[in-house]
Each structure stands twice: as structure tokens, then as C-alpha cells.
Amino acid sequence: MSRVIYWFRTDLRLHDSPALQAALDLKPEAFFPLWCWDPNYIYKHRVGLNRFRFLLESMQTLSDNIHKVNNKSQLFVVRGDPVLLLPELFKRWKISHLVFEKDVNGYARDRDREVIKLAEKAGVKVVMKNGHHLYDIEEIVKKNTTGKPITSLKTLQGIVSSMPQPPRPIEAPKSIPSPVLPGKKEAKDLQSVLAEIHTSLEGVPTYHKKPGPPKVDLNSAELGGQRKKDGKVTCYETVDGPDAPEQKKEEHFTVPTLGSLGMDPKSCGAQEKAAVPGGENEALRRLEEKCKEKGYMATFSKPKTSPSCDATEPSTTLLSPFLKFGCLSIRKIWYDSIDAAKEYKGGNKTAPPENMEGQLLFREMYACAEFAVGDAYQHIRGNSISRYMDWYLPTEYGKDGKPIEPRPRGDEVSEKRLEAFRAGQTGFPWIDAGIRQLRLQGWCHHLMRHSLASFLTRGQCWISWERGAEMFEEWLLDWDPNANAGNWMWLSCSAFFSQFFRVYGLATFPQKYDSHGTLIRKYCPELKDYPDKFIYAPHTAPLEVQKKAKCIIGKDYPLPILDEKAEKAVCLNRMKTAYAAKYYGTSKEVLDGKAEGILRKQHGESHPQPPKENPGTNNKIPDWAKAGVEATGATGKKDQKASASKDEDEEEEIQPENTDDHDHEEEQEEEDEKRGTKREAEDEKKPKSNSSSKRGKKA
Ligand SMILES: Cc1cc2nc3c(=O)[nH]c(=O)nc-3n(C[C@H](O)[C@H](O)[C@H](O)COP(=O)(O)OP(=O)(O)OC[C@H]3O[C@@H](n4cnc5c(N)ncnc54)[C@H](O)[C@@H]3O)c2cc1C
């Protein structure tokens, strides 16, 4: 007879869970649905309030759903490091099997290896089933014969075409056995179960008896003061809770509260209510709603979805946080969207990479790349797929070869730019609205993420993508170790994508989707009364317009922190040098610390010059900002013409998902480089026409 711990992690659902099904197939006499509230997640990862809230809501929904199937059960939340706690539970509950969903990426990889060893030592059988991905990531990586990590959808598609199709989703279980302690009979109700299990854990050491040094202090200014000033993390005081004053003393194994994490939405300016509520029920509701619109699924084309959207009315599915925490099964979204598209009778059906299948395959691709590269994937040094650029504010390493945390301050100009970016105070409304939306809602559209990442790295600031990835790690509801670092590498042209000569315009790109600037009016309310003409570049508005809009640029809203075009030109030059040098995170010159000096010497660019005038002290518009008045602030017909002629070198709208040109094979790179140079040369020669508006139509 088996006695099973089912260890829930990023699979917070009952529907279509192969691992859960495998556990139930063991026909257990005792079944413990367990969640280890892992302090590593709290102290060593950058998790902001919104993601914690989403997670807690998802855990609560799961607990309620388990309880609906078996009223003597729920999700049993134990507080502590799984590596310390699980062996204790194996002993006390006489466990025969530990079952969980396979996770080969990021932090889970090492933790699970350790847990498996401990289980084997304790004589507990481990059952692991794939379920977080469509395919077994480890198997794809083994089948890859290119000798390099997979960085293109084509390579991935080639490999999976010879693998069996992912099985169709299965239903949620109709029954779940109760947790029964060794030598005991099934308890009469949940209260008795909770009391018995509580007693069984007497004397189990809490996390606080073996604390690790916190790596990430969520109270630090750098992390935006996410905790209340006096906020203490109380959820580790006992192994099984309760841990918050509002909970009753006898309430054990409950889902922790935000308060017990020392967090309070009010104290850090977060929204009182989550913009995206978590949990399996919400995930299934959202998916069903999207799939009802058969035309939406059949003709889904990512580049055509608008980045100017809110989490309350997303132009894409907004299912990523649910996939991240496994509230939604990947096979469910895969097959439901395919089925919906099949039933659509209209034309213009889309295909990968731009359609929904393509989007979900990107998720697989990043997981394969991360697994092949290993821990170095989160950084540049030691990362075999990330090109090396001489970015500002790179990760610094100590003598032990590990990243220094917190990072020592870098050069002042870049630090100021990073601070302005973080605060949503760059003076570029599209960027600021995106950052503020992310901080408030925990989500923004993919192409908004493109704009943010491109601006911070190769577009203008030349700041390492590692810094951007860290911020997203804190803010995103859907943060995922594979997709986040992978997309930052993509957008900074460090891996996956190499068309560095294409840069997003900070006003021209968003104008194509929304000339009214809806998102800006919402997230930068100080600019809400600006006319459409100036909404994306308010610093270009004449003073009378600024006064009328009750927002003086340089006083009520910052002047741009940099000169968009001048910086873009400098960055392009640097990119060319870095691409020609062909250094990767594993190159000798990078590992021995010489690459930065070599590149700086070659491209001859000194540090980006800050504007001479001091933005924020008066309304003196610097000359470089004036020069862009018509070019960036224009939306009217007459002005558009001016824009076209002045902005001829803009190559802002890119749709990497559409190009699928991202394998970093040598020939491919060389070809790209040639195309890059050729394209720029053509741009210089081209007669001044309205080609940018044509590009707009294409987008
Ligand atoms: C700089 C940057 C960082 C990002 N960080 C993350 C991250 O940490 N976690 C994350 O899930 N996505 C990340 N993305 C990818 C993408 O922006 C989100 O997956 C997408 O916006 C989620 O919204 P959606 O569910 O409405 O997407 P939809 O367009 O509806 O797509 C459906 C699903 O496909 C997957 N998907 C779509 N695009 C991508 C992609 N480019 N990479 C990986 N998966 C994709 C997601 O699971 C998504 O839920 C990042 C993108 C950028 C540019």
C-alpha cells in the first residue's frame, strides 16, 4: 500500500496534471497534498508584492478545489526549506512515494536533485512526470545534434517533429484520498485531520533554526521597499502556521497571508486589488472566454496585437502568469486553441511563429536553451549563447567567482539612468507608462516589454540586460527563469536575434498602435491633458501648450534623460564593434576580464554624455530636445510628412517573432551583419520618402 506526498510546486491545478494522475494511480491509502513554503523563494529571489499575491491566491484556489473533491483534505502548507522538511515528513508520515511535476529549469534543477537524493536515502520512491512543458525538455536537449543550445524555433520544430505529439489533456480527478497518519484510521473531518497532522509535526525544526543569509532584501531601496516599514516576515515562526494575527490559533497549514510576509499593498503603492487575480478557476475561465472567439484564435498574430493595452483589457490572452504557476495546463491551452482555430470557418488563418502555437513553442524554446546553458543563463559571464557587449553596469564577480550581491555601484550616469528607468521617470512617456504599468499590474504587453528592453540596452542606455532582467524578476507576475533572461537576450541582440540595426522609436513606434496615447494618460496622469500631437514627446510641446495641459516639462514631468537619436547612433556603433569581435560569455577575453577594454578601445566611444542642462530644475529645453519637435511629436498629416523626412533613419518596428531569424550560426551571423551594413547604407542613399508610414501599415 502506498503512502504518497504529492508535492505541488509550479503546478497549482487539478485539471490535466500527469503527475497528479500518476500519484492517484498508485491508489494510495494516504495522500498528502503538500506545499513547502520555501524561504529561498522569499529571501533569495526577487519577488514583488504582485507576484506573491498571485501565488497566494493560486494556492488558496487549489486548496479550495482539493477540499471540494475531498472534504477531509486541502493543500497542506508547511513553512520551510523542502530540503530540510521533506526528509522529516518522510519519516513521520511513513511515506512510500514522493510525486511531483518535473521541472528542469532554474533554481528547481538543483533543489530537486538534492530532494531526489534525500528521498532515495530514506527509501522513498520518486515519481516525476512532465507537465510544465509540452515536451520533455531534457529529451529535446538530448536529441539536439547541432552541438549548440537551441536558439531558434526552426531547430526546435525540427526536433519535436520526430517526437510523439503531446498527449491530449485529461480531466481533473473526481476523487482524492485523504491524508491518514501511520497507524491511524481516516479522521472524521478536516479539523481532526489538521489537529492530528499538527501533532505529528511536533519538534520539527523551523526554517529559522537554520537560516541562510538573505540574498535579496525586499525592504531595500533598490527593491522599491516592498515590505511595510516595520513589516516582519512571521510565516516561518512555526512549521505549520498560523502565522498572521488575523488567523485563528488552531488554523494550521493555511496559505500564508501577505501580512505574514511583511507586505501590505498600501505601504508600497501597489493596487489594493490585484489587476490579474490568480488561480486555476480564473485561468480556465479566461481560456474558455478566449477560445469562444474562434476567429481570435485562428487569426491570432502577435505583431498585430496592440501593446497599448491594460491588463484589464489585454490584446493577447494574458495567460502567462497562469502558465508560470501551472494554474493552467500547457496542453490544455495548446489543444483548446488549436481546436478553436480548426472550428473557425473564415480565412486568413495564421501559422507559427506568429500564431498561438508559435507563442507556446517560444516558451519551449527558451526552456531548452536554459537547460542546455545551465545557471550561467541568467548572466553573461559563462553563458555560451550570450554575446558579450561592453554594457554599462554589468554583473560584478567576487573572488569566489560568484556575482556580488548587492551589486557595487557603477558609473554615475548609467546609475542615474537606471534609477530613472526603474522609477518610470525617464521623460519618455511610452517607457514611463510601461514601467509604471508593470509595477502596478505585474504585466504589460509583449511589445511594450520589447520597447522597455530595447531602450535600456542596445537602443539608448547601453546598460546590461542583466539589470533589466532583475527588475522584471521582481515585477512580473509571469516571471520565468527561461523566458525572462531569454527575452532580454533577444531584445538586446545578445542571443536568439541579431538584427541590431533595427531600433524601436520611443514615440514613432507606439504612435502606430495608438495615436491618442491611452496608456500614457492612464499611467502618467500628469500628462493626461496633453494634446495627441505631443503625448509621446511632451518635451517638444511649446510652453503655452504645456501650461494649458497643467504640466510643465522639467518641473511636473521630467525632461528626457537622454537624447534618443544621438544615443541610438552611439549604441549602433558599439553594436557593430561588438558583433565584429564575436565575443560570447564563454570567450577567453570575457573570462579574463579583457573584453571590455578591447571593445571600448575599438569603438572609440567614451561614456554617453548627459544633457548639459539639468532636467528638472527649470523649463529650459536643451537644444537636442528641441530638434525633435516636429519629428517625434507629430501625428497630424502635415506633421507626419515632416516626421517622415526627418526620421528617415528610424527602423523602429521589428517583429522578431515574425522573422524567425535568430539562430546564431556563424554564416547566419555574417549574413545578418552584411544585411545590417547594407540596409544602413541603403537608408543613407534612399530618397527622403514616406517609407516610415509604409512600415507603419505593415506593422
Ligand atoms: C524582456 C522580456 C521579458 C519577458 N519575460 C517573460 C517572463 O518572465 N515570463 C513569460 O512568461 N514571458 C516573458 N516574456 C514573453 C512575453 O512577453 C509574455 O509571455 C507575454 O507577454 C505574456 O502575455 P500573454 O499571456 O498575453 O501572451 P500571449 O501572446 O497570449 O501568448 C500565449 C503564451 O505564449 C507564451 N509566450 C508568448 N510569447 C512568449 C515569448 N516571447 N517567450 C516565452 N513565452 C512566450 C506565454 O506563456 C504566453 O502566456 C518576456 C518578454 C520580453 C520582451
From TrEMBL:
GO cellular component terms attached to this protein's record: cytoplasm; nucleus
**Does Flavoprotein show up as a keyword for this record?**
yes
Co-factor binding comment: Binds 1 FAD per subunit.
Any one biological process term the GO annotation gives: entrainment of circadian clock by photoperiod
Q: Which residues bind FAD?
A: 316-320, 359-366, 478-480
Entry's PROSITE patterns? PHR_CRY_ALPHA_BETA
Alphabetically, the GO molecular function entries are:
deoxyribodipyrimidine photo-lyase activity; DNA binding; FAD binding
PANTHER family noted in UniProt: CRYPTOCHROME, CRYPTOCHROME CIRCADIAN CLOCK 5 ISOFORM X1
Q: What is this protein called?
A: Cryptochrome/photolyase FAD-binding domain-containing protein
